[in-house]
Amino acid sequence: SRPATTQRAGRAGREGPGAVYRCWSAAEHERLPARTEPEIATADLTGFALELACWGTPDGSGLALLDPPPPAAMAAARATLRQLGAVDRDGRVTGRGRAVADVGTDPRTARALLDAAPLVGRRRAAEVVALVEEDLRAPGADLVAALRQARRDADGRPTAWSRAVDRLLGRLPDVPAPSPARMEASAGAGGRGAGDTAIGGGAGGLSDDLATGLVCALAHPDRVARRRGAGGSSYLMAGGTGAVLPDGSPLLGAPWLAVADADRAPGRRDALVRAAAPLDEDLAVLAAGPLLRTQEQVAWVDGDLVARSWTSLGAIELSSRPLPNPPADLVAAAVRQGLADEGLALLPWTDAATGLRDRMAFLHRTLGAPWPDVSDAALLADVDGWLGPDLTRVHRRADLRRVDLPAALRRLLPWPDAGRLDELAPERVGVPSGSRPRVDYSGEQPVVAVRVQEVFGWTAVPRLAGGRVPLVLHLLSPAGRPAAVTADLESFWADGYRQVRAELRRRYPRHSWPEDGAHAEPTSRAARRPRT
């Protein structure tokens, strides 16, 4: 803020006379906030919320605060305290909460101290908590290396870290020495259940590396992280944030990490890990047990129907298996979403299905109600109305290719009008030659493509939709090439046929081309003129 820059200039002035230089432009200076945000508006309020609970005023009502705490930050703080067991659902402090408050540190690290002491030993728990609280620099983000260096520095002389360790030990109630049995029982309490393998070979067998990782994970379970892919420095934390190790870190390649400190700069997708310790999956589950969830998913994901059950630690997926018999209603909802995302092309649009849909669209366009609208938008809006029974048999995308679409579309036909479908919009029509070509309803008007010789003797085209729409004839040459288009055969025989006949006689001289097509004998075969 601008007031903060003035304060810093004053701090420099106290050192002695001279000049103070502002290392940014005047324009940048004008964009700085005019007022410094009070700490309560930006700080983590978990410790403050615990103090309020201990005072008996969980919501802070009645306290003459200079600035009220932000409601969202207070809600997040109370949620964290509930997760730690420090307050009950009503926000009242619990016995565990008073023990956490008595430690005199951040509630998260206090919880780590209290819970880790029986698992890794009092002193080792206090050493790691003091290291995290002191915010000592970890070379290459390796917190275990920082712990060993802190021990060396404190050998024979007191340091700020060693004094913090002694203070924490003084606040820590007596706990039994760690034992494999207690570690195994704690693992069961963390969510894996009785009978699982003892974590880390028992508490007594935990190395400094894993013990440090466990204490950090107990302090920040949402920062338990697993490596993405088979290698590299990228991790996913249980809280959902990505994290990367600095180049050259000794922790590179570790499958699991407990992140004590990470910093995400503006504009960066992943946070940069500042301090972390190695972990394994069992310890991660022990420390972040409340984040362990087993869920089922039936959804349309990346172009396919996914039906699976998976176990996750927050955002980290631990295991997954297919659901053999997913609930039919969830499958239907997922397929509806897939159709909405990718369109009706997911369905098997055979010639029969497309032809039926075109006929129904023609009747809706020509006659209106009760003939249904079968446009993409209308079909997608009423998936259950016509496709619903078929969705109950779908378990994966491939099953959609086996849906009987003509039968599904017929569910939309109105009753009793459905019985007139073939009368009003026949799939095929008979022509004088005796053949029955298919009617194409895909355009604005129904069309039949037929050879000119097959309609000799025909003087009027059929009218469809109850006589409202004439059938359009695409008249073809013996080779199947377009020769003429007409919906009025009487006019065609009187006028247009003369030119068409001349052209066809020139190109197909061996065929018979009578002068009067209206009274000639039709044929479905490519008839040839007799030799002379």
Explain what the structure shows.
By secondary structure, this protein is an alpha+beta fold. The protein has 21 helices and 13 strands. The protein has helices at 2-13, 26-31, 39-42, 46-55, 71-84, 95-103, 107-120, 122-134, 143-153, 160-171, 180-192, 208-219, 281-287, 328-342, 351-367, 376-381, 383-391, 397-400, 405-410, 421-424, 489-507; strands at residues 224-227, 234-237, 242-244, 256-263, 271-279, 292-301, 304-313, 316-322, 447-451, 463-464, 469-470, 472-476, 482-486. The strands form 4 sheets. A 5-stranded mixed beta barrel has the order 1-2-3-5-4. A 3-stranded antiparallel β-sheet has the order 6-7-8. Strands 9-12-13 form a 3-stranded mixed β-sheet, covered by helices on one side. Helix 4 (46-55) packs across helix 5, helix 7 (107-120) runs antiparallel to helix 12 and helix 8 (122-134) packs across helix 10. The longest helix is centred in the C-terminal third of the chain and has 19 residues, at 489-507.
Mean of the pLDDT scores? 87
- Total E-strand runs: 13
Distance between the amino and carboxyl termini: 108 Å
Helix/strand/pairing class, anyone? alpha+beta
Largest sheet, in brief, is: 5 strands, mixed, barrel
Whole-angstrom Rg: 40 Å
Strand order of the largest sheet: 1-2-3-5-4
Assembly state of the chains shown: single chain
Cα shape: elongated
Question: Ranges with pLDDT <50 over ≥5 residues?
Answer: 179-204
Portion of residues within helices = 40-55%
